[in-house]
Amino acid sequence: MHTSNSQPVPSEKAPGPRSQAHRLRTVLLLAFGGLLALMIAAGVSALFSLRRLHVLEQQVSNRFVSHTRALSEVVISVHIYDDQLAKFLLDDQPAEPRDAGTQIAERAAKVHSAIQSYPSDGGPQEGRLLQKIEKSLSEQEGISSALLSLAPEDRKTRAPGFVHEQLLPRSLSILQVSQQIAYLNGEELAKSNQDLLTKFASLQARLKSMILAALAAGLLLSLLGTFYVLRLERQGRERYLALADSRQELEKLSTRLLDIQEQERRSIARELHDEVGQTLEALLIDLGRLSRLAAADQRAMREHIDRLKRLVENSVKTVRDIALLLRPSMLDDLGLIPALEWQAREVSRRGEMEVEVHSEMASEQLPDEIKICVYRLVQEALNNAAAHASAKNARVSLTQVAGKFQVEITDDGQGFDPRRVRGMGLLGMEERVKRLAGQLKIESRAGHGTRIVAELPLTMPKSP
Amino acid sequence: MRKTRILLADDHQLMRSGLRLVIERQPDLTVVGEAADGREAVALAKSLRPDVAVMDISMPNLNGIEAAYQITQIHSEVAVIMLSMHPDESYVLRTLKAGAKGYLLKDSAEADLITAVRAVAQGKSFFSPAVSKVLLDDYMRKLKRSGAEDPYDLLTPREREILQLVAEGKSNKEVANLLNLSVYTVETHRSNVMHKLNLKGVPELTLYAVRKGIIS
Predict the structure, then answer these.
(1) Given A49, A213, A411, B12, which residue has the most CB atoms within 10 angstroms?
(2) Closest Cα in chain B, distance from residue A318 (Å)
(3) A64 C-beta neighbours (distance < 10 Å), count
């Protein structure tokens, strides 16, 4: 209804519901946003780490493969060179030394190029070992070129010795060195693998801790959220209860006010009618007698008395009207429907508006509260129709169906917008109907008249 | 000559004494009792058997209408005059239905009381002139609005005669004697009047007659 603007503010200190909702929203946004960011960060960093590890592993394995291949290149070329050399030296029918020389030189160049093409990214130890191979090779070359320049017979006699004493040991040492290099390579690979494993483990640990942190944060957040929501709910419930309480108090108060008002009106009307009114009536009778007692020739005195009579008559009328307005004695004397008919005729007599009363009542036996309520409703509605809506015709109908009493007042006046116009009169009607657990409907549109329907339950008629 | 015996019922001492003064000035009238509420009025009417009871309409305990009803139920010979402040149809009709013979406005009580008492004592009705004026005004306004004609114009002279006599309180037999007609004919005329005027019962008929100024 229309009571939203009259709600009492529960406390000055408490934040308004709007700012509280705002705060709650901010808190929720921050909390869930933070949690989400944390999880995304963990995921992204894990992804990057895994990728880096993968690249690193590939590098390691590439390096090992290329080193191994280069080394075997070197070893094979050394073998071929040695082979060639030994074959030339030990052959019974040696080829032309000049051809053999170029062939051997070619082999040697191949060995050099194999060593040259060995990847330079190895450690210093590897470099030293390679230099060792190169050195052995240069020595072999020096010896072999010296042998080549010898005469064939000479060479034939010296060759076996040379092969056994010079060439083979050097080849052996070259092989040993290359084995050392291979071992170094293997070690390097193992070390890299170890490294990778460590890195992977650290990534695992980091991920684990991140997941744990996210879980903890989520748990904390949900706990806080639950707590906060519960607190909000409790506050809301308390506030609602307080509001309902105060509303009930207000309703009680207004009911009480109406009761008091009705009682006051009744007693004032009684007082006016009984004391003032009756005294005036008696005065009127006495004045009449006085006028008759006065001698016929005392015209001035008679006129005086007549003027007094007229004054008293006016006062009687005024007092009666006021008393009727305050508390219609008709209700007590005649009952509801004659009282309403009287009211309708009063309005008609004033010439403002024609009022018809229709009644389909089974009995006039109605509780006093209902009579007063209906009477005042009709009074207010007719007053409004005549005074504010300048209606020309109005109709009051009363029906009683299935434990319900219904009064309907329609007029052909200007009408109004019931959602915007809330005069004291309408509020009073609502109040009266509500306290009898009834329902009030007000239908009106500008230019289409007004229809007011009140339905009052007839159960539990109070003892008279 | 036997004096007309009167019972006064009003919850106001001042009012009663005023009325008593007016009545006692007349040699043929006497006040035999005073009641302060409706219950007392009924009791006194029972014990004193007055000719006329002048009764205020609003009284504590039992209001005037109820008291009038109880009195005329038990002792139909007691003629009740109702004192009221309201010149209104609802009151007049209820009063007539309660069996009262007169309806006197308090404004004019002093001037009309004696006339009223004498009229009802003779079995006639009495209504304050102001009442018939208000009733007629209301009636004419209603007719004008509904656009209907006054059904009084539909009555024959004989029917008008009978309407007046019945409204004055005469029985069918009395009317028949007065007009030299059979009771049966009077009965027929009377029901025709009721039908034409759309009235139910003697009280409504009397009210109508008051309104039209046929009786007062």
Answers:
(1) A411
(2) 12
(3) 17
Structural domains for chain A? 20-222 (1.20.120), 331-457 (3.30.565.10)
Q: What residue in B sits closest to A318 (Cα-Cα)?
A: B85
A229 three-state secondary structure: helix
**Which residues of chain A make contact with B138, given a CB cutoff of 8 A?**
345, 348-349
Instruction: Kindly report the nearest CA distance between residue B215 and chain A, in angstroms.
Output: 23
Residues of B150-183 as b/e, b for ≥16 C-beta within 10 angstroms? eebeebeeebbebbebbbbbbebebbbeeeebee
The verdict on a CB contact (< 8 Å) between A274 and B15 is: no
Cα–Cα distance for residue pair A215/A232, rounded to 1 Å: 25
Token duo for residue A27: 């808190």
Residue B216 lies in a domain: no
Nearest to A334 among B19, B91, B145 (CB): B91
CATH number of the domain that B70 lies in?
3.40.50.2300
Contact call for residues A404 and A455 (beta carbons, < 8 A): yes
Q: Rounded CA gap, B72 and A425, in Å?
A: 44
Q: How many other C-beta atoms can be found within 10 angstroms of the C-beta atom of residue A352?
A: 17
* Within a domain: B135: no
Residues found in chain B? 216
Which of A184, A177, A175 minimizes the C-alpha distance to A63?
A184
Residue B121 and residue B169 in one domain:
no
pLDDT tens-digit series, residues A424-455? 678 888 888 888 889 999 888 888 888 999 99
A220: number of Cβ within 10 Å: 12
| Structure letter (DSSP) for residue A356 | E
Distance CA B208, CA B127 (A): 12
CA dist., res. A196 & res. A194, Å (int): 5
Instruction: State the DSSP code for B108.
Output: G
CB A338 within 8 A of CB B90: yes
Tell whether B3 is within 8 A of chain A (Cβ): no
Containing structural domain, residue B60? 4-129
Nearest CA in chain A to B62: A333
Contact: A354, B141; criterion CB under 8 Å = yes
Query: Under 8 Å CB-to-CB from A52, ≥6 apart: which residues?
Result: none
Whether ipTM tops 0.85, in short, is no
- Please tell me what DSSP assigns to residue A273: I
Task: Assess if residue B97 is contained within a domain.
Answer: yes
b/e per residue A102-126 (b: at least 16 CB within 10 A): ebbeebbebbbebbeebeeebeeeb
pLDDT digits (tens, 9 = 90+) for B83-129: 988 888 888 888 988 999 999 988 787 788 999 999 999 988 898 88
User: Whose CA is closest to A396, among A429, A433, A357?
Assistant: A357
- Contact B89/A288, CB-based, under 8 Å? no
What the block records as the tokens of A272 is 């006016």
Report the residue from B63, B89, B109 with minimal CB separation from A333. Answer: B63
At A405, list the tokens.
Answer: 């009493």
Backbone phi, psi, residue A30, to 5°: -60, -45
Residue A154 C-beta-side C-alpha neighbours within 13 Å: 7
